[in-house]
Amino acid sequence: MYPELIARPRRLRSSASIREMLREVYLRPADLMYPLFIVPGWGIKKPIPSLAGQFHLSPDMAAEAAAEVFALGVKSVLLFGLPEKKDPVGASGADPEGPVQTAIQAIKKAVPEIVVATDVCLCEYTDHGHCGLLNGHYVDNDATLPHLAGQALSHARAGADMVAPSDMMDGRVGAIRSLLDSEGFCRLPIMSYSVKYAGAFYGPFRDAAGSAPQFGDRRSYQMDPARRREARLEVSLDLAEGADIVMVKPAGLYLDIIRDVREHCDAPLAAYQVSGEYAMLMCAVEAGLISERAGALETLSSIKRAGADIIITYLAPKAAQWLREDF
Ligand code: PBG
Question: In this structure, which long-range contacts are made by residues 98-102, counting pairs with CB atoms below 8 Å and at least 24 apart in sequence?
């Protein structure tokens, strides 16, 4: 009846087996990195109101959480700290007895094989909540660099496996690399938040980490969401300064950028499914509008399809469990 209809893509969609045979994108638990929020103390596991299903954990409980995700096949965690004290330069971020430094040791003791990455930034540790030192209301780039490097070094000394600067100061990868190298940590990789956009989707995280800026916003250092080509520049600079892994953040709203970066360089690429992306999904799930399992796995495989190798996600434990059940 319709002799001209020769190509019928539906021929290859007719059964679960043929669909499985032809899949191009696979998610594995090892693709996922799980963020943990560390508070000082002992025995603390307190639900975070802005991030349903996530917890404020003391170092001992972080070690338990790390052991649980590792048992599910997730090979890495990313640590954020909530310090006891804040000041204008974020000095507590480099405290050898700070929550992150203590948690690194507790996690490595409990699960030596897990990759412990640490977020390196000042916003959780400064009393003004900006990611760098202030000069009036301006965030001073070059004055911030030694403080970031010092924080990274304290993580290295505590036994971190990877440091991940997220502040968006120019030159911070180079500054961290040279301090680490001069202190004997030339083998420690840097995962740089190379392409980090200033957007509205970090709100739940800032509540969770107590890191919202006390005035203004982060648009003088994070990237303008309406610019695309600048992503390649940021990645080139970070690689030239010694970054080992580059990152795009947020992930789901920036799939075009993930693809651009994937095609621009051969470095391993991470993408951060940020708190606002997670919160949107969880609210829709809560309202009965989207299936949690199907919706979550679809967001993650889209990020992988765009070109990410590693996905940093609050969904890591659940997704790892689902992926194991699927096999
Ligand atoms: C610290 C940092 C932030 C996030 C990761 N590292 C917050 C920010 O830039 O304000 C956001 C992560 C998320 O929203 O899940 N600079």
Answer: 98/40, 98/154, 99/38, 99/39, 99/40, 99/58, 99/59, 100/38, 100/155, 100/158, 101/154, 101/155, 101/157, 101/158, 102/38, 102/40, 102/59, 102/158
